[in-house]
Write a sequence for this structure.
């Protein structure tokens, strides 16, 4: 083992430290292999040791030791991200936050938690008080709240609340810095954007204050259609129906439905499908909408029935990619803001089955818009870039899932305030180095 790492290990020997090669490898990786490009770039990247703190005080100890010996530190939640957010490019310490699981307080409409709290476990408790998380990824059962804030952006609930970066979706964060003397820092309001979706490059999150949403009994429903654009128009119509409370609007083009084997009894061949979560209180109005758009309900479970098995959430967002890749590992994906149905129709007709359209509707600047996690068969990196370029030149926005750089994904430009904040809290550049452009 690297002599410098040995010094860190000796200094922190009273903490939970993992050195087993197999375990360190497992805890160095995420779902980066969804992208063949990232797989080539990241498959050999590993940390040297993993440390699992249980308290904020222990996090400070780890930070101090890494600063003392100038050892890189990469923060990790459950590792359910897809862009290599938690994969260390330069070795060092993996700081696994999954043992920091306290719900510090839960009040009407807001909660304070430690980063390792699992999202599904939190919701189970919060719903007893009439509240729930505003949004969550398809990895909801295993993902941690801290990991989602650090590396995620949208998910179930985004049709109502938009993206995590939208003002108000994160109230406050408490972080540990990597200065000569690591300190605790509380960020509130707009200040949280210095750390929100920053891949752990700008501070170790130790507490989060998050706003909640009123909970409803969420019915889970599949509606099928003969025509894809009719399915897409239905999705937009549902998103625009202010009187129908919804939490999830997913639309899959027919080729994608063939990859969802667990739902095959509800997805007739060559049909296009909408996978939905709707308040049980609004089912009568919802069924009228289905009739208007000439859809057919093939699956409907009440909230109680849905709670006893796999949720439809696990066939949406990036779990759709997971299911498709389980059948055909050559499949990869994009992440797209279509903005309008006209754009959806243009790209649907232009690419045909080469780019299989999977829509997720979300709130963007006050309006519900179609986003996409399209699937396609990987051939070459050049073809991936051509597909991305065509989308961007024709009115769509791409959050590129084939890069591990913060600026290379959805931002495309250096975030100067975030970069300046990094220089303040991480003067030696030890936090997840290589993920943020620093010059």
């Amino acid at each position: 083992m690297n002599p410098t790492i040995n010094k860190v290990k000796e200094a922190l020997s009273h903490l939970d430290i993992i050195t087993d090669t197999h375990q360190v490898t497992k805890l160095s990786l995420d779902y980066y292999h969804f992208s063949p490009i990232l797989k080539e770039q990241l498959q050999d990247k590993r940390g040297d040791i993993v440390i699992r703190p249980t308290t904020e005080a222990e996090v400070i100890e780890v930070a101090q030791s890494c600063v003392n010996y100038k050892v890189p530190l990469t923060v990790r939640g459950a590792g359910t991200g897809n862009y290599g957010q938690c994969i260390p490019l330069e070795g060092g310490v993996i700081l696994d936050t999954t043992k920091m699981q306290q719900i510090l307080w839960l009040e009407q409409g807001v909660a304070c938690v430690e980063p390792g709290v699992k999202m599904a476990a939190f919701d189970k408790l919060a719903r007893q008080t009439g509240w729930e998380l505003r949004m969550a990824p398809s990895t909801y059962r295993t993902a941690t709240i801290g990991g989602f804030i650090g590396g995620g952006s949208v998910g179930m609930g985004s049709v109502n609340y938009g993206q995590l970066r939208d003002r108000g979706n994160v109230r406050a964060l408490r972080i540990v810095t990597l200065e000569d003397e690591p300190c605790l820092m509380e960020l509130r309001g707009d200040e949280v954007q210095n750390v929100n979706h920053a891949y752990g490059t700008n501070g170790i999150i130790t507490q989060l204050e998050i706003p909640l949403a009123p909970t409803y009994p969420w019915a889970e429903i599949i509606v099928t259609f003969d025509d894809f654009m009719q399915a897409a128009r239905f999705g937009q119509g549902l998103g625009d129906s202010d009187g129908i409370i919804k939490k999830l609007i997913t639309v899959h083009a027919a080729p994608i439905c063939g990859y969802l084997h667990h739902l095959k009894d509800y997805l007739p061949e060559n049909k296009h499908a909408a996978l939905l979560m709707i308040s049980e209180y609004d089912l009568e109005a919802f069924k009228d909408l289905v009739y208007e758009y000439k859809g057919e309900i093939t699956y409907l479970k009440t909230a109680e029935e849905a709670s006893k098995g796999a949720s439809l959430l696990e066939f949406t967002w990036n779990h759709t990619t997971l299911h498709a890749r389980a059948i055909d590992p050559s499949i990869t994906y994009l992440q797209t803001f279509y903005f309008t149905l006209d754009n959806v129709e243009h790209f649907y007709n232009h690419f045909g089955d080469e780019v299989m359209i999977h829509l997720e509707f979300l709130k963007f600047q006050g309006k519900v818009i179609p986003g996409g996690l399209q699937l396609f068969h990987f051939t070459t990196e050049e073809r991936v870039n051509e597909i991305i370029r065509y989308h961007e030149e024709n009115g769509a926005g791409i959050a590129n899932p084939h890069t591990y750089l913060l600026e290379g994904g959805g931002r495309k430009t250096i975030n100067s305030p975030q970069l300046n904040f990094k220089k303040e809290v991480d003067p030696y550049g030890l936090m997840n180095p290589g993920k943020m452009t620093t010059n």
